[in-house]
What does this fold into?
Amino acid sequence: VAEKRTSRQPEILLEIGPGRGPLHVQIERALRDALRDGRIASGAAVPSTRVMARQLGVSRGVLVEAYEQLIAEGYLVTRPGSRTRVADGVRPLPRQAPVAAFPSVRFDFRPGLPDVTHFPRDAWSRASRRVLRELAAAQLSYGDARGAFELRAALVEYLGRARGVLGVPEAVVICTGFAQALGVIARALYRRGVRRFAVEDPGHPDQRRILAGAGLAVVGVPVDDQGLRVDRLERVAAQAVLVTPAHQFPSGIVLSAERRRDLLAWAASHAAIVVEDDYDAEYRYDRKPVGALQGLAPERVVYAGSASKLLAPALRLGWLVVPPAWAEVTAQIKKDADLGSSTLEQLVYADFLQTGELDRHLRRMRTIYRSRRDALLRALTRHCPRWTPSGVAAGLHLVAGLPAGRDDAELARAALGRSVRVYPISDYRFKTRGPAGLVLGYAGLTEREISEAVARLAGIGG
Amino acid sequence: VAEKRTSRQPEILLEIGPGRGPLHVQIERALRDALRDGRIASGAAVPSTRVMARQLGVSRGVLVEAYEQLIAEGYLVTRPGSRTRVADGVRPLPRQAPVAAFPSVRFDFRPGLPDVTHFPRDAWSRASRRVLRELAAAQLSYGDARGAFELRAALVEYLGRARGVLGVPEAVVICTGFAQALGVIARALYRRGVRRFAVEDPGHPDQRRILAGAGLAVVGVPVDDQGLRVDRLERVAAQAVLVTPAHQFPSGIVLSAERRRDLLAWAASHAAIVVEDDYDAEYRYDRKPVGALQGLAPERVVYAGSASKLLAPALRLGWLVVPPAWAEVTAQIKKDADLGSSTLEQLVYADFLQTGELDRHLRRMRTIYRSRRDALLRALTRHCPRWTPSGVAAGLHLVAGLPAGRDDAELARAALGRSVRVYPISDYRFKTRGPAGLVLGYAGLTEREISEAVARLAGIGG
It folds into this structure.
């Protein structure tokens, strides 16, 4: 144990010793701590440098240096002809009460989450190393607020191939996840005069909040078994609409060919913008995915996607493919928000697209998710035969329709008692009512877990 | 060369061949392309599947599958009793005109940029590998919008040690660079009723734009040789103020001890908030840095910093240390913006802090930047002896005051003619006038480049 020298006074006790850095720095730190935790009160005089130096057994110069630093920082004040004192207002910081932890359950059917345990860590690590080795130094500085050109170009190629999206890198804006992407396009629309924005009902409440936060009046349009009721858009006087054509969230319905046509006709005749949230379209199990709506009308449709369901939400990578006429205003809004998202991860993701790592990962995950979906369907048939699954062809969740008279919120509460979390579709409804159902995300549970969780649900009235 | 089969018709030419994926996918893609580039017009009938199959020499089933896909996607429409046609409104996407490149110069004294050629790529790569190996799978999912706990805790430790900041991880919010951090705290202040926000004049115009974008009325307060004129805050009825105490931007002045005290007294008596932009305080050459103002009044001061000048702007890592009473509203605003910044880079930066890599990097860079500052001072003395440098003790830039009567904007324009970019301080002024000067960022130029660039400036009137 190092020898310690202490200065004991009515007001003050400092500990300093060898191996803890320069003496004056140690003294400054110790004094700061003593001031902050209230051991020396505001306004109180501190010992003179001479007294303090003698007590600590150090040279007076060390104390003078420490006091000068604390005076410059404002902790101590000195006035001609009077003693150095503790400045007014130096006060300890209260600790914040710890936040109550979210109650954890054994089985969580939370929709919209991929199985992150399969995240390709080694491949990501290798790609990171490649990127760090090869990037130009200029790419480490401030860049284009729209994002790294490499990623914008790679996305145009990938989305063209996998989703039928028609874009140019100049009109792609990389964002921090879909959440920011939606906020950015909402603000761009607002800036160009859009005030009434339609959303699907049911839909994601967070998205309604993001749109409202951009100043937009959010109006709901019901969804039926063909998807969005396009005929209602005129009635609500919408100037833009957010849709999930490939797999409506949360109902799972695929927008029918007729409705796709009607939607684009509405957009064309009203000079309106369609925002296409293509959140899980890469996962389709029984047939090829329906291509993105955007490819049909790239001048009317904003395409939005993210890496959250393809790889991991923690990457916070999302993107907008906007009509060229919207590229400038959208880029400006993104620039005002944060000058652009992190470059390194963009370059790593571009590498993932270019080297086919993403395709490999998706092939692997599709097989896993299909098995889990099948396990969920089997378990429902066995344990909850009166529930009717829908929206099963794609994505990472399905909806289990409940028999007439059942209350989905009540059932969800009862399920919590058995340590199973399910998501009542009523929580996603905006203005309309509709049949009761449970949104069941199956991507994060193993087949065995799915089977046991559904068996537990049976016990409360499946 | 692979054998190609083509279908030639008045309207259509498709190329398909082996080795390009399943036939029906090839046909879909080729048809989509033909529709989009206008080779087949909207409303035109497409050949029947029978005719098309015969022409391409493939089975009719393949064509049926391809057409069905394009009907589901909305490219083609079919009505009972009539031929399949191209949907209305399928139109090619115009290329956007390329953006004019920023005119590049040989020597750029842009302030606020570190020398990214020294970015520790290997160390960052090693830290990334460590993080990817060790992180819990749950960290790849959605996380706390405030950021990874590991980074918040590491920052509290580092900022306490290096900057005298007093914080708790619960009240730290990680953002996408300082730009987003300022926008987030501005919105938090607005939500709690702040409407008039004071900034230093001169100061950064981008920051004024960010504050105004949050709905705040931005008022300027002049800076003199002791820093912010605190006595003016009352006159402008400010409810909050943004300051750069360690090295005022762009003047380089250090806020005096008296002004620090006055500023905190003003904040206390007006229940106001001080936002401290500590953008380059780690770089101080002639004495120890003055500790952050925040440590004196952690309940009144929001501390804001970023990795942009410490490591690289491309990381887009910034942070806010807010008073505990402000933690919740600030976290909510960050959550609404994007649900949180990218986790992996946060963890890598936390690793950098914990393993001392950042300290090592800063020690190396301080030496380099000090030499560059000295080279700039020598060159100014030699070539422009009538210019008066100030704000030289810290940071990555200084200000060269011009002799009376010289116009800084005019001089900057003339310098461009010699391929030297300098930054007139008048560009940073908001409402006040003041002496002419050039803001010279020296971090990104070598000593030899600095010397040559200043020699060129001499030629236009140094």
